[in-house]
Amino acid sequence: GESVGLHLPTLSVQEGDNSIINCAYSNSASDYFIWYKQESGKGPQFIIDIRSNMDKRQGQRVTVLLNKTVKHLSLQIAATQPGDSAVYFCAENRASGGSYIPTFGRGTSLIVHP
Amino acid sequence: DSGVTQTPKHLITATGQRVTLRCSPRSGDLSVYWYQQSLDQGLQFLIQYYNGEERAKGNILERFSAQQFPDLHSELNLSSLELGDSALYFCASSPRLGNYEQYFGPGTRLTVT
Question: Of A57, A75, B16, B63, which shows the fewest CB atoms inside 10 Å?
Fold first, then answer.
């Protein structure tokens, strides 16, 4: 079946560096994508989203890029801080009956060294 | 704190048993989602309810069922439990049906022995 996957299971960076987390998706019917952050012992937390009719969206210190041609999604975190250490998931969402059905990637663990 | 509460926090039970997990959404949120997170399967969408009605279904087993009550809290029932059902179960809520920003609860860790 179709799936969402991540290229790098673990990413280690130094504090202050920029981080890039990648995600590949395979369902061309997906029209909405979300990045989540999950800290140890907590539930996932919404970071940023992007619709399929966009190729870039910026938030506070985060930018999501969408390349529909190669079905690739990335999350860029500027000036990474120790508090950014967490597992990051991408999720593709497929419209269904007025709602959305999400499919999640396996996650990338981001480790920020002070 | 997301405003979503889940009980219990931990649950240990035996194979073949039945358990009920409870979720209270954020105040005012009409939509509730259930997810299962395991080491081998990752985070998987199970089911969504909106204002008491089932609206979307994911990889939910027939042994599992859910409902959303008039006060908008939701319960996930897991029956004939198997070892492989051991996982974290998350509930999330959002204000509207097609609202994308979901607020996740802290999860219930289920251990089946």
Answer: B16
